[in-house]
Amino acid sequence: MKVANYDRIGKNYNLTRKADPYLAKRLHHFLRTQPTEKYLDIGCGTGNYTVALHDIGIDFIGVDPSMQMLQKAKANNPNIQWVQAKAEDLPFENESFDGAMVTLTIHHWSDLGNAFDEIARVLRPKGRLVIFTSTPHQMKGYWLNHYFPNMLNDSMVQMPSLERVVESLTKAGFTISVLEKYFIREGHEDLFLYAGKHEPALYLDERVRQGISSFSSLANREEVANGLRYLKEDIASGFIREIIKEYENEEGDYIFLVAVKAG
Question: What CA–CA distance (Å, rounded) separates 98 from 164?
Fold first, then answer.
């Protein structure tokens, strides 16, 4: 797991990585939360979604391996319990949570199988695990490939396939109940990798790129510089519309996966 990566980018992370209201609503919907139940946000980062759901009355504990991120999370809401830990080694008792959510983090885990085993261990029977992620297949449809092909390829290599995720969940004792494609909407407030799908000029902002691990850790500086130059030219000429159109597809940009522990 690239803990140092998020320790490094965590300083300005909250400038561009805010909880998107629509995405937060979908997470809430899939968790099927109850006021008396307890939930876990694994890989919570600076806690934007943890806080968003906590603010509507859901009891959450946020977990992240990066102390830099957790310091930001605690500043956002000191009333939530923030715990430094990895997904593969959760410091909680067996069957102590009713549900968990995992947003854009499974590609940073060192051992997918062990992590899902740990989550299964701490969830109560019939506990729900909501995963928000992207797949390599979906990422092939990002128009960013036109400008940053090596960076996107490295990102796809890091991202576990949907087949691998489902297989690991099944081995850990989960049943898949929902697979829902997620298409980036205009005005998306959480500026992760493909949030600029409809607003390509966002990628010209260094602050946006600093909050995206692909740009901050996986990208080659020369490729980024060249790609940004071409992107800027294409935005100015309007040719970017042709590039975006070329990559249009119905595979979804990200995916929600809901898994239920046996019980």
Answer: 25
pTM of the full predicted structure?
A: 0.93
Spatial CB neighbours of 225, under 8 Å, sequence gap ≥ 6? none
Three-state secondary structure call for residue 44: coil
Q: Would the CA dihedral through 164, 167, 172, 176 be positive or negative?
A: positive
Could you give all domains of the chain from N- to C-terminal order, each with its CATH number? 3-135+159-197+252-261 (3.40.50.150)
What count of other Cβ atoms lies within 10 Å of the Cβ of residue 248?
8
Closest by CA position to 40, among listed 133, 114, 134, 115: 115
Give the C-alpha separation, 215 to 258, whole Å. Answer: 29
Quote the CA–CA distance of 183 and 180 in Å, as a whole number. Answer: 10
Encode pLDDT of 155-212 as tens digits: 999 999 999 999 999 999 999 999 999 999 999 999 999 999 999 999 999 999 988 9
